Amino acid sequence: MHAWPASEVPALPGQGRDLRIHDTATGGRITLDPGPVARIYVCGITPYDATHIGHAATYNAFDLVQRVWLDTKRQVHYVQNVTDVDDPLLERADRDGLDWSALAERETALFREDMTALRMLPPRQYIGAVEAIPGIVPLVERLRELGATYEIDGDIYFSVESDRHFGQVSNLDAASMRLLSAERGGDPDRPGKKDPVDPMLWMAAREGEPSWDGGSLGRGRPGWHIECVAIALDHFGMGFDVQGGGSDLIFPHHEMGASHAQALTGEFPMAKAYVHAGMVALHGEKMSKSKGNLVFVSALRRDGVDPAAIRLALLAHHYRADWEWTDQVLRDAVTRLEHWRAAVSRPDGPSADALVEEIREALANDLDAPAALDAVDRWTLLQKERGGTDTGAPGVVSRAVDALLGVAL
Q1: Of 312, 331, 307, 304, whose CA–CA distance to 118 is shortest?
Q2: 240-246 and 271-277 strand pairing
Q3: Which of 83-119 are b and which e, b meaning 16 or more Cβ less than 10 Å from the residue's Cβ?
Q4: Chain segment 324-347, per-residue pLDDT in tens
Q5: How do the residues of the chain divide into helix, strand and coil, expressed in percent and rounded to 5?
Q6: Of 403, 402, 400, 409, whose CA–CA distance to 351 is shortest?
Q7: More confident call, 294 vs 358
């Protein structure tokens, strides 16, 4: 599967700062110090409805991570998956009378278009669950050899008790885990399970549903969590720098993925930092496909909204915050974009050297994009009120905003 084209990232003078970021597993801020190549895995979409503002907010957060690392003169190895076979996708295809694979292909293509328009830096590897199946099967077989699995009517489950570090990503109690498992694709009430939250590794073939040859596992398809584990271990191994996604992935997805990998390898942790973006609401409720309260990036673009304004609307909220999308949020972003573009179109202005360092410091401080926007606002206001004589300043501001915030002026 191919990703989307990369926009050019301007090189800035000087050196960026190492990223200090909130780690869900420890509950505190840590300083990331990757090697020459920083490694990040971000969980991708299930392509039955793409791309809503909640998605865009999540991928914007991890785009900022990449930009901070690039500014430190590191290379970035970014991997993202696409869950192109799963129950929600099959249910939507059945509801709409569509072939499930055609639906997945259509929505993935739209996602690529939206990511390109928003200037999100693409992953080096963009991998679908279906194409990952040849790598998933041996991992499930290995977990079975290790005694970490059991079967119920041909379905193969992972036993969470096989990982002594289970629970150290989410730090939730058993009751909370069971509740979230039921809400997020698990089956805690299925008879015969050792632990209610034990996740499925391999689902035996169901009549009328797609299935693949699983060798000794029999025909079927993979569970959700093992998909990402197979892809991440294939490209990174253990101990990569950041595992990212929305906060709704903390449990069960990232908790289970970590346990799968740790049980397979005997190593800990799977990732040095678990980083999660907040949820976006609409009309007082979390924006979600199940509720149908979605604002789509593609629809905004069709209505003539500049993608740079959409991106500024996302950047106006701290990535870990839960926030609500409103018409006013978008209007504010459109106005800000107009002010910024007017400022950089002038022939001169106040020196921008300090501004570049302010943006760098804000982003290094747990991706504080709102503080970075405020810094640019102050520079544009100073230019408007007092002017300046630095003929290179507008160009510096334009390049810095592009390189560090992904907004093309």
Answers
A1: 307
A2: parallel
A3: bbbbeebbebbeeeeeebeebbeebbebbbbbbbbbb
A4: 999 999 999 999 999 999 999 999
A5: 45, 15, 35
A6: 400
A7: 358
Tell me 150's DSSP state: E
**pLDDT score recorded for residue 290:** 67
Q: For position 50, what pLDDT does the model report?
A: 79
Give me the residue label for tokens 């034990």: 198
Find how far residue 101's CA is from the centre of its chain. 23
Handedness of CA 130, 131, 137, 143 (dihedral sign): negative
pLDDT band at 289 (very low <50, low <70, confident <90, very high): low
Give the whole-angstrom CA distance, residue 297 versus residue 318. Answer: 19
Domains of the chain: 20-282 (3.40.50.620), 303-405 (1.20.120.640)
Q: Which residues pair with 243 in a beta bridge?
A: 41, 274
CA terminus-to-terminus distance, the chain: 31
pLDDT tops 70 at residue 264: yes
